[in-house]
Structure formats: C-alpha cells, structure tokens
C-alpha cells in the first residue's frame, strides 16, 4: 500500500509482509531510527540558537575535527538504538570501535547490528546548509546470545536487510529501503509525524547533473578528468550542470529526484577516496540499486566489496544508471 499521506507507522504495518524477517523486529528498528531522527532534527533546527555549532574540540578516528553536532547526533542515535532492545551492536563514524549492546546478558536475543553516519556533511552545519544521517542494518552472523564480533559488521553490502538516510533540509525526510523499493517520508514538525510523500522513488535512467569536488581536479585519476571534460563538452544534451552541496545525502537525494551522478574518486591525496564503505557507501548503494540506480567504485558494484576494516574508504560513483556506466567507461580506458 503506497497511498500518499500514509504515516510511517501505518506504512510499516501495511508493508511488513514484504520484510523477510519478523515484522515486529522491522518496526522496532525503523521506529528507533524515526525517533532518533526527530530528536536530531530538533537539535539541527536550532543549531544556531544554542551552543551546539562549532567544533567539539576533539578529533575522530577519521582525523576530522568533530563538530558538536557530530557528537550530539552520535550520542542520540546510539542511546535511542540501545534503548529499543532490538540491536546487539552499533558502529559509527564517530566511534573508534563498535559498541556491544547487552553483551553481558547472554539471554541477549537481539539479532541486528546498525552502522551509522550520525551527521553527514558536517562542514555544512555552521553555514546553515543541509546535512543528513545515514544508517545501514544487518542481521548478525555470529551466534545469537554471544557477544557481537567485528565480523558481524564486516559484511558485504549485499547482506544489508535495511538502509536509509535522513536529510535535514528545507524539510526533514526519512528515505529508506528494506529491499522492496525506496520510499520517502516527510516530517510534519507540528505533529512530529512522518508522512509518505515520495512512494517508490526511482532514479531517472540518466540525467544532466554531475556532483563532485572539482577543486581536487589536479589530483584525480585521468579517467575522472576525462569524464569531467565529457560532462563539459558542448554536444547533444551536454554540457551538464555541476552541483555539489558537500553533503553526500543531499547530493544523492537531489540526483535521485532529478537524475544525476555523485562521484568521490580516489586521488593522489586520498588513495581510496574519502567516503566510508560501511556507513556511507553501502547504505547509499543499497538505496540506489533499489531505485534502479547504480553504485560502484568506478569498476564494480560497491555492495560486492568484502570489507576488511570498520572505517575503510572506497572510491564512490553513484546515481543514474546510464551516467554511472558512462563514467565507468572512462575509468576503464585510463590512457
Ligand atoms: P561527513 O560529514 O559524515 O564526514 O561526510 C562528509 C562527506 C560527504 O557527505 C560529502 O559529500 C563529502 O564528505 C565532502 O567532502 P569534500 O569536502 O572533501 O568534498
Ligand atoms: Mn565526518
Ligand atoms: Mn558522511
Ligand atoms: Mn559524519
């Protein structure tokens, strides 16, 4: 049932049959994300009013200066997920190692691990530009009731059972998939309720928007340089339009609605690019493929990469299928 203005709660109940595991567990998982998203949305919307913009004074394992909102969003999502008795482990961009939940309680029947980028696009916080949250959900692979292990988190993206993002923009939206298409819900802040506003979202097969940080041009591989020149040539429906917001979630969301490609390639200064496989690229790739888009490392599907480390980075090409395929052609011929 995909009628507009269904609430998120009604949607979960009406569509739980398509969820391959226990429907009650799915609704607990998505409801935990929904609650945390509302809490973080409240903080994001008042960021300029109270002392939560600016740097927290620490650096994370990525070597980034943590923003106060990075830390706050991280705490809110972890706390909400822990309290909902459905998750046995959490990994986050802002946590060096994964967090075991109820690991001492060997009755711990919780089956799911959640990986999060609690605040995506941190550089935009202080300048009032849209930011997001990204989440990725797996069933654990180690025996239920035992302490969660690193291998529960190092699963290929193909194993995800759900993934989604929140975009805190002109409106706040929760967009997610459980493997049965992609649906977008818009928050009515007056009621605190998410309503189905974008049923069955699909990437246009192609588009005219390319999103990447061209400031790094000199460092890019020749294939990426050649693709950028292709986008800028006057031929057919080109030159394309360049749009780069600085938040993966926002660029991805716009490209899914209008058509486009987002690229964060490897470079001479970032050997594997910047984006993290487990809590940025895999969840966005799951959504992209469910929306008839494509997500690769320039050569093969991101969701086939076998992870080796919690915070590993991969080059990322994602968006309208025909645009990603064209970019891959340029990557294949790196004269
Ligand atoms: P995060 O804020 O979670 O660290 O992620 C930021 C990512 C992504 O959201 C964005 O597209 C990209 O970094 C911007 O990187 P550059 O500033 O290097 O272009
Ligand atoms: Mn960061
Ligand atoms: Mn991010
Ligand atoms: Mn982040």
TrEMBL record:
Keyword Cytoplasm on entry: yes
NCBIfam families: PRK09293.1-1, PRK09293.1-3
Family as reported in the entry's similarity comment: Belongs to the FBPase class 1 family.
Protein name in UniProt: Fructose-1,6-bisphosphatase class 1
Binding-site positions, substrate: 120-123, 213, 244, 274
Main location: cytoplasm
Reactions accelerated catalytically: beta-D-fructose 1,6-bisphosphate + H2O = beta-D-fructose 6-phosphate + phosphate
Cofactor(s) of this protein: Mg(2+)
CDD domains: FBPase
EC number: 3.1.3.11
Quaternary state and interactors: Homotetramer.
Binding site for Mg(2+) 1: 93, 117, 119
């Amino acid at each position: 049932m995909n009628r507009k203005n269904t609430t998120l709660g009604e949607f979960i109940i009406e569509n739980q049959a398509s969820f391959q595991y226990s429907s009650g567990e799915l609704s607990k998982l998505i409801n935990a994300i929904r609650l945390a998203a509302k809490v973080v949305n409240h903080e994001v919307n008042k960021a300029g009013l109270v002392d939560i913009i600016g740097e927290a004074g620490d650096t994370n394992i990525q070597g980034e200066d943590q923003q106060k909102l990075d830390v706050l969003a991280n705490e809110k999502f972890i706390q909400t997920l822990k309290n909902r008795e459905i998750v046995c482990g959490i990994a986050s961009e802002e946590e060096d190692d994964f967090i075991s939940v109820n690991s001492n309680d060997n009755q711990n029947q919780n089956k799911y691990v959640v990986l999060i980028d609690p605040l995506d696009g941190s550089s935009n916080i202080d300048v009032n530009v849209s930011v997001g949250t990204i989440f990725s959900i797996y069933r654990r692979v180690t025996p239920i009731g035992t302490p969660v292990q690193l291998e529960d988190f190092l699963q290929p993206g193909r194993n995800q059972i759900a993934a989604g993002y929140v975009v805190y923009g002109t409106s706040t939206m929760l967009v997610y998939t459980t493997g049965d298409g992609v649906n977008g819900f818009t928050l009515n802040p007056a009621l605190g309720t998410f309503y189905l506003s974008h049923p069955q979202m699909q990437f246009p097969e192609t588009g005219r928007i390319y999103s990447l940080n061209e400031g790094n041009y000199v460092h890019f591989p020749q294939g990426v340089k050649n693709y950028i020149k292709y986008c800028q040539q006057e031929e057919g429906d080109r030159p394309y339009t360049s749009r780069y917001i600085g938040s993966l979630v926002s660029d991805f969301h716009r490209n899914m609605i209008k058509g486009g490609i987002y690229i964060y390639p490897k470079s001479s200064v970032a050997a594997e690019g910047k984006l993290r496989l487990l809590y940025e690229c895999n969840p966005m790739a799951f959504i992209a493929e469910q929306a008839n888009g494509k997500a690769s490392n320039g050569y093969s599907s991101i969701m086939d990469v076998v992870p080796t480390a919690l915070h590993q980075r991969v080059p990322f090409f994602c968006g309208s299928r025909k645009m990603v395929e064209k970019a891959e052609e340029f990557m294949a011929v790196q004269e």
